[in-house]
Amino acid sequence: MSRVAEGISPLELADYQKAVRLVLRHPLVTPGYPDRAALATVRRWADQLRTDLMEVLGYRLVTTADTVRLQRAQDGLDVTRPALTRAGRPFDRRRYAYLVLTLAALGRHGAQVALGELADAVAADAVRIDGLGLDTARKADRDAFVDAVTWLTERGALTLADGSATAWAGDPGRAEALYDIDREILLAVHHPTRVLQHLTSVTSLLDSSGALGLSAGRAAQRRDQARRARRLVLENPVAYYADADSELLGQLRAPTLAEDLERLTGLTVERRAEGVALVDTSGRLSDLRFPGGGTVAQAALLLAARISAAVQRSGRHALELLPAPTAAERLAARARRIDAALPSRGLVTELAELAEQDEESAYGVSVYEGPGDEGREPGEIRYPFVTESWLRGRLKEITAEYGAGFAADLCGDPDRLLGQALDLLAAMSLIARVDGGALALPLLARYRGVTARVKTRTVAGPPSQTALFADDTVNDIAEDPTP
């Protein structure tokens, strides 16, 4: 029997699980972020949360008078949780750089700071970084800087005392903004577990057991593997057995994994022949929902249905089967892209060493294991492959049928729409993007029955379209205002 939430009565368990989901969804909780009730909700259960999150996941919960900070143990490079701009778009590298430099500059100021003064301080640091800079005469630079400041404001590290950041971004010569600085929240925002200037690769941040000071030894290694397996299921849309090494595979199949995660989160663990998934039907834990609203999500859903239908073809029309990149290969590729932006001087290299099927299948994607075709490795798993030209053709059909409800700029830029739709499907572990196209992963078959029909609404206002899907969910394909 699971010892998670031990001592909590059945009547209070739902409230406790709500606090768990809240702190997992928002690793930083302050008096105003993500809302005014969140801090009290989490602090009520702080002692039990601290025990369970460490025991089950290896996560450390740090609490102060006005903050709750969850220090996650990172096993991989997650591209699905970016910081977002005021318009809801992911931060680019410039905005991330401004955010870090802003944090550094705020540490040198007192209780208050004017936005223009803060921008000058960040600009003085940014000019020393090749290819960055911050020119307050350029609107694009001001917008990027204000996005970084707004991100801190939303979390309470800065509080607007007077003026307007938006007005300053429009014309810094005629507008200004004054901010109060909250040192406690500022410290909680930036709480690294490593000395960052000593790292030569982003993968050095992934030695989670060492970073959090967990004990070593055989028993501790088994506990760490169990925590790693639970994190894999919790943090990803699905944990595929094909991606797991032998030790982790045993932990993924262990019955205690489901017991612990279900009692901790209040969600359901679903096991299939291909892997394990934590099902969040409420959407209260997931940071990325699928299906969802908006042009990209709707196009991705309809594209997923077409790929899934193509996977079902057999005979001479069957899709070619190819191996997917391994988890290690995906990690290495992401690390190379991030490491390309790291400075190359002043690093202490020696401190930056890398720590180095009983269930019925319900996903329905045919894969093959064991020796077989020429050139195949024994035990290699292959997945159906669709080419980029085939994907372009299917997206063209989708926009022709449903484009009246899509954002005009995305319809006019099909390559951009296709790229964003495929990125979303990849983030949900439905496909793996490879050179020349994409591989259909097992979870994609969940959407093989999706159908849509267009109906015209009779309400006043501009015409719109509604897609009715086979699982009885209703998704509006109405005009998307997203630029």
Q: Can you characterise this structure?
A:
The chain is an alpha+beta fold and 483 residues long. The protein contains 17 helices and 16 strands. The strands form 5 sheets. The protein has a 4-stranded antiparallel β-sheet with strand order 10-11-13-12. Strands 1-3-2 form a 3-stranded antiparallel β-sheet. Strands 4-6-5 form a 3-stranded antiparallel β-sheet. Strand 2 and strand 3 form a beta hairpin. Helix 13 packs across helix 15 (388-402). The N and C termini lie far apart (51 Å). The model is unreliable at 209-213, 346-376 and 457-483 (pLDDT under 50).
Number of strands: 16
CA-atom Rg in angstroms: 24 Å
- How widely separated are the two ends? 51 Å
Q: What oligomeric state is this?
A: single chain
Shape: globular
What percentage of amino acids are in beta strands?
5-15%
* pLDDT < 50 runs, ≥5 residues: 209-213, 346-376, 457-483
